[in-house]
Specification:
Low-confidence stretches: none
Strand order of the largest sheet: 1-2
Number of strands: 2
Radius of gyration: 25 Å
Helix content: 55-70%
Oligomer: single chain
Shape: rod-shaped
Structural class: mainly alpha
Strand content: 5-15%
Number of domains: 2
Largest sheet: 2 strands, antiparallel
Mean pLDDT: 78
């Protein structure tokens, strides 16, 4: 199909209809595969890596490593952490050290 367009010849009506149907099916399939966007965290509600590091008394790199444990979300290139999860983690760590 592309070759015919490049050569300047028009495809026949059957081939054009088939190409159009294939393009629509591929577009629909791609759209079906795209997950719903996650709710965008608000800066007042979510914590950055630096804020998490400060609250937990660890380095930024250590906070990044905890992203999976703390269920962080990536917004662009920034990791955002749920403050409740960070608080629960900090509380559980304090409890472990007290024993």
């Amino acid at each position: 199909m592309r070759e015919k367009r490049r050569n300047g010849t028009r495809p026949g009506p059957v081939l054009a209809a088939l190409d159009h149907a294939a393009a629509q099916a591929m577009t629909a399939a791609r759209l079906a595969d795209i997950p719903e966007p996650a709710p965008r965290p608000h800066s007042e509600q979510w914590l950055t890596t630096g804020q998490v590091a400060d609250r937990l008394g660890i380095s930024r790199r250590q906070a990044q490593r905890l992203a999976g444990t703390l269920e962080a979300r990536r917004v662009g290139q920034t990791l955002m952490f749920d403050p409740d999860t960070v608080h629960e983690y900090a509380t559980s760590k304090e409890t472990q050290h007290v024993r």
